[in-house]
Amino acid sequence: MATLRDIAEATGLSLAAVSLALNGRNGVSDETRERVLAAAAEVGYVRRAERQPRPARGFIGFVIEQLPFPVFSDIFYGDVVQGIDQEAHELGFSTGFTVVEPARPVEARAKVRQMLLGNRARGLIVIGGSNLIDELVRDLAKQAAPVVLLDNYLYDLPLDGIEMDHLIGGYLATRHLIELGHRDIGFIAGPAKYRTLSDRADGYRRALLDAGIKRDPGLIVEPGGGSGSKKGYHEMRELLTRRRPSAVFAVSDKAAFGAIDAIREAGLTIPDDISLVGFDDVHESSLLTPPLTTIAVPKRLMGRLAVRLLADRIGLASDGVSAFVKPTKLVVPVSLVVRESTRTAS
Asked: Within 13 Å and on the Cβ side, how many CA atoms surround 244?
């Protein structure tokens, strides 16, 4: 099993710096913390809880797909993972994670098997939804280990899961703009392979339909491959070459960040020229100028609830009654947070 020294060698950092980063303590920069977390995932490091308020209950793992940028620098999933880690610690579990790459499905399956067999995980939390993740989940459903799906749900499988109400979130964001008098509402979409983002698009379409507004395909921009700070930037530039909208709903706060850069480059202002709404309410959204109107998601709560579901299922499995208890699906509510990036239509 990988150790702190393996991470230190991979990053060129001291053991002390690695320990500080892994335990979320002051003394290292955010960039260093991200490097350490990425290296930990690469070498297969499993972090043990330092304090066990309850008797040690074993190891649980979580699986997440590699994004176009370092997973643990993602401002959405970072909060989810923190919630997982906190709840697991309080319940007496140690935790570990593995990052799987879409282009390497065979390696991904091997990593998951290693967690179950080599690390003897008592259960797994699988985060997000994509073609690869869905394949892995279907493989896991055939095995005995308890599995909880987080921010994804496959209705044909008897697995516990927790997700946010993406469709209602998309609906609330779009309805807010409609209530401000906007009719030409653009939409910066996300990759179709993520059902969660498709649900947000469905919310956008439904809000337009309910308001009697004809959907204009020219106001919908599909993702152009940008990531990180460029996510949403190229899509917004493309949208501005068409019929300019008076408002835009971006499928995520990250997409909204890129859209802001494109809007300003075009010599336009927010919200005087274009109102803008995001989705996720990441911390940075409230610090922008102007602060971003967005859809708030209880990210840490989702992580905590996923661990509680998994702990319950592990207990049922230990008692030999898991097969007789129907899976639980939890849908956490989302809410609209109105800030200064939206205003009434001119």
From this structure: 10
Is beta strand 185-188 parallel, antiparallel or unpaired with respect to 147-150? unpaired
Amino acid at 16: A
- For the residues of 269-285, what is the DSSP string, one character each? -TTTT-EEE-SB--GGG
Q: Tell me the one-letter amino acid at 35.
A: R
Please give the domain boundaries of the chain with CATH numbers for all domains: 4-164+299-332 (3.40.50.2300), 166-297 (3.40.50.2300)
Higher pLDDT, 243 or 304: 304
Tokens of 250: 């971006």
The residues near 318 (Cβ < 8 Å, ≥ 6 apart) are none
Judge whether 126 and 116 are in contact, CB under 8 Å: no
Instruction: Evaluate whether 273 touches 263 at the Cβ level (below 8 Å).
Output: yes
Number of other CB atoms surrounding residue 130 within 10 Å: 18
The 3-state DSSP class for residue 44 equals coil
pTM to 2 decimal places: 0.78
Percent of the chain with pLDDT over 90: 47
271-322 residue pLDDT tens: 999 999 999 998 889 999 999 999 999 999 999 999 999 999 998 888 888 8
Q: Minimal CA–CA distance to 276: which of 215, 224, 232?
A: 232
Within the chain, strands assigned E span: 46-47, 59-65, 94-100, 123-127, 147-150, 160-164, 185-188, 220-221, 247-250, 275-277, 294-296, 329-332, 335-337
Q: Which residues contact 197 (CB under 8 A, 6 or more apart)?
A: 166, 189, 190, 191, 251, 252
CA 309 to chain centre: 18
* pLDDT at res. 73: 55
Cβ-count burial 9-42 (b if 16+ within 10 Å, e if not): ebbebeeebbbbbbeeeeebeeebbbbbbbbbbe
